[in-house]
Amino acid sequence: MVRAVASRVVPRQRISKAMAKEAASEALRAERLALNADLPMSVNRIPTRAENDIGSAGVAIRPMGNSRRVFLLDPHLKAGEMEGLAHRIRALSKNEGINSVLIATDDKDDQELNCLPRYVTQELDPNFGGVSLDFEPAPNQSWHVSGGYDPLSVAQTMSEPGSSDKCDFLMESVKKLSMASKGDSAETRVPVITFPHGVVTDAGYALCMGGYVLATRETSFRILNPSRGLSLDPVGFSYVLPRLGWEHQQRSSKYPGCGLILALAGYEANCFDMVETGLATHLVSGSEILATLEHNLASIAPWNQQKLVKKPKHFYGQLPPRDANASLRNVTIAHIIDQISEHSANSAKSFPFDFSVTNAEDPALDTDHVPWDSGFFSTELVDMAAYFDDIFQQEKTLEGIVERLKEAGSQTTDDPDEQLGVDVANNLVERMESQSPLALSVTYQLMKMGGGRLASVENCMEREAKAQLKLFAGKDFAEWAKHVRKHGGELKAPAFGGWQHESIKAVSASEVDEILS
Q1: Are 196 and 213 in contact (CB under 8 A)?
Q2: Residue 16, number of CB atoms within 10 A of its CB
Q3: pLDDT in tens, 426-441
Q4: Residue 331: how many CB atoms within 10 A of its CB?
Q5: Phi, psi (degrees; rounded to nearest 5) at 227
Q6: Phi and psi of 70, rounded to 5°?
Q7: pTM listed for this prediction
Q8: Could you tell me the maximum CA-CA distance found in the chain, to the nearest angstrom?
């Protein structure tokens, strides 16, 4: 929203130099506001409160040396804030005068610290002692980094005039934010780095589509929407989840169940799950390393100064020369991130220490027992997907997957390992059956379509947005919202079970097709 600029009408002969200077500054300010009329005032370089007291900003951006720092002040952003943030991330990622864009949270209150980088507010003291300095959240709770938008606000909007246009704008804003974070291979110059210290849910993952995602021990990811009567947000989940682990040829790439468990069961992937599947690129010790990262990013040379070779001469009429320094750009940032990380997605199968500098004859280094086919890094999510791989590979319908898991959960055994598999199967079934049957069926169909050869991030986003808009107007979402408001919020409300369909079997193919059409 653009705030109106007051103007004064005074007789010409009474205008002093001070008044002229003030009028000129107001005119300049008005011009700047007009140029940025499509951008919300709620996304500022420092958090401020609007003159009409509509509330504080949900996000702020500050210069940080040769980098730019994005502060998330609220886990839920409005559509205008997401669109404004997308615009700024897109513009900053093309800026050759900086080296990176850092989106980060930790256990500190950014508003109390006036959105200053951590290396400014605290002494730069790398933690080499192995003791975490994090301030832990309360038991059974976690920091909420981002959830995208507030679903209860959307439910309230559905009863207001113009709700369809508002929801369209919201979905477009989510798509723009996801694509801005992801970047464009032709135009993007500097990497977008995300440091989420806490849980990321649903559309909040749009901020994690960049080049680097640094997970701490508190970082996790979860898809909650099917438990609200909704489907996948237009972040590109139906493209990303069927391809987990593909980029770095990780063990998770062999098991399509990894993505299905995340999409259908509401499973909360921890930091190890995220790195092993590629949802996060690196694992760091804790949020205390953020100050070290900020300090290094602030001092690294900007993109246009990361060079050794002089730019070749270019004469009029000739094709522009290739970038002779392309292989040197952004390399220092990659090395810095590797240095501060404990593990990375692209080293999931690397040996855990440098074998070349050790005594190969040392019996303590006997690696015959190491399962080379599974690497050195495995997680609960990947193990579950591997254990039930036959089910996820063979069954081509959601109903078939649930029935096979029920069969696996009905077995009796005295073997502790097999009993663990039985318990996991029953838990997955319970999770799936507690969610909206219609939303779950739509989500599964989106996953099938997104896993096809002709799928792209863009067309997957379009399908996700189209389905979500129809589910916003659906009965399940409206009833869920009433239930949550009645109990004082989503955290306090018990699980909702009053869905319009009793089970997945009751959902017809025509209903799913109508939502996806």
Answers
A1: yes
A2: 9
A3: 999 999 999 999 999 9
A4: 10
A5: -80, -5
A6: -105, 125
A7: 0.82
A8: 99
* 8 A C-beta contact, residue 238 and residue 516: no
Q: If you average pLDDT over each of 45-49, 131-135, 350-354, 446-450, which comes out highest?
A: 446-450
Q: Which residue type sits at 234?
A: P
List the 144-146 sheet strands across, edge first.
144-146, 199-201, 220-222
CB-CB neighbours of 38 under 10 Å? 10
Question: Between the CA of residue 9 and those of 23, 34, 73, 117, 246, what are the distances in Å?
Answer: 10, 21, 40, 44, 65
Per-residue b/e over 300-327, b at no fewer than 16 CB within 10 Å?
bebbeebeeeeeeeeeeeeeeeeeebee
Q: Which of 73, 78, 74, 59 lies closest to 157 in space, CA to CA?
A: 78
The contacts of residue 489 (CB under 8 Å, 6+ apart) are none
200: phi then psi, degrees, rounded to nearest 5? -115, 130
The model's pLDDT over 374-429, given as tens digits with 9 standing for 90+, comes to: 445 678 999 999 999 999 999 999 999 999 999 999 999 899 889 999 999 999 99
The whole-angstrom separation of Cα 293 and Cα 103 is: 12
* Residue 114, phi-psi category: left (phi > 0), alpha (psi -120 to 50), beta (remainder): left
Neighbours of 480 (CB within 10 A): 26
Q: What is the DSSP letter of 6?
A: P
Q: How far apart are CA 195 and CA 495, in angstroms?
A: 31
| C-alpha–C-alpha distance, residues 41 and 1, integer Å | 6
Centre a 10 Å sphere on the Cβ of residue 223 and count the other Cβ atoms it contains: 24
Contact 257, 390 (CB under 8 A): no
Nearest in space to 173 (alpha carbons), one of 60, 81, 74: 81
Pairing of strands 67-72, 59-64: antiparallel
Cβ neighbours of 73 (radius 10 Å):
17
CA distances from 337 to 293, 340, 344, 388 (A): 8, 5, 9, 35
Q: DSSP state, 197?
A: -
Question: Which amino acid appears at position 27 of this protein?
Answer: A
Strand order in the sheet with 67-72: 43-44, 59-64, 67-72, 100-104, 192-195, 212-215, 282-284, 341-344
User: 159: which 2 tokens?
Assistant: 């009863």
The conformational region for residue 115 under phi > 0 = left, psi -120 to 50 = alpha, else beta, is left
CB 121 within 8 A of CB 290: no
Task: Collapse the DSSP code of 72 into the 3-class scheme (helix H, G, I; strand E, B; otherwise coil) and give the result.
Answer: strand
Assess whether pLDDT exceeds 50 at residue 332: yes
DSSP helix/strand/coil, 263: helix
Contact 247, 278 (CB under 8 A): yes
Alpha-carbon span 389 to 298, nearest angstrom: 46
Which residues are bridge partners to 61 per DSSP? 70
With tokens 């792209």, the residue in question is 456
What distance in Å separates the CA atoms of residue 460 and residue 446, rounded to the nearest whole number? 8
